[in-house]
Amino acid sequence: MALRLSGSGVASLSQGLRAYADELAIKADFLAATIADEGADTARSVVPVDTGDLKASIGIEGGDGSYEVVVENDHAAFVEFGTGVQGHDYAGELPDIWEYGIGEHILQDGSWFYPDPDVKEGYTRTWGQPASGYMAAAAEAMKQAVPAAVKEVFG
To answer: Which InterPro entries does the entry link to (predicted)?
Structure first.
């Protein structure tokens, strides 16, 4: 961009800078949306599927350059972090409120029974379920996608 030292030159520069700033905001929004899409796609591709409800609830929220991968499902955290003695293998950082193997109905070996209408006895014994880390995988995919996405959007 060239600047001539005149009133019209300064006005032209100012107009060019405003246009560049507008373009930058659009590109930044596209960049953030692209990276969020990568995260949501990754989460959907690695989440364990039982009924499909959890996978279907993974989406993206946001706008104006700020996006989040979200899951709107009551058992999302149990699948992410795992439960019981089997859940202790979560590789990521657990929320402060997450604890394994607590409660008055946990047996000495870490197992417990839950109501199960599909079995004759009415209860099934479990040691929990392993952590799947589908959202941790999404976060890692987003982190890995940044350099290529920046290059694509900004050239």
So the answer is: HK97-gp10_tail
15, 68: one domain: yes
> Distance (Å, rounded) from C-alpha 118 to C-alpha 59?
32
Residue 43 to residue 39: CA distance in whole angstroms: 6
pTM assigned to the model: 0.80
Q: Two tokens at 33?
A: 């949306």
Tally of domains in the chain: 2
Residue 2 covered by a domain: no
Q: Based on the domain organization, do 94 and 27 belong to the same domain? A: no
* pLDDT tens, position by position, 110-149: 898 888 999 998 999 999 999 999 999 999 999 999 999 9
Distance CA 155, CA 153 (A): 6
Residue closest to 82 by CA, chosen among 133, 126, 136: 133
Sign of the dihedral defined by the CA atoms of residues 74, 77, 79, 83, in that order: negative
The whole-angstrom separation of Cα 130 and Cα 2 is 61
Phi-psi region of 52 (alpha: psi -120 to 50; beta: other; left: phi over 0): left
CA angle 26, 32, 34 (to 5 degrees): 100
- Report angle CA 19, 151, 3 to the nearest 5 degrees: 30
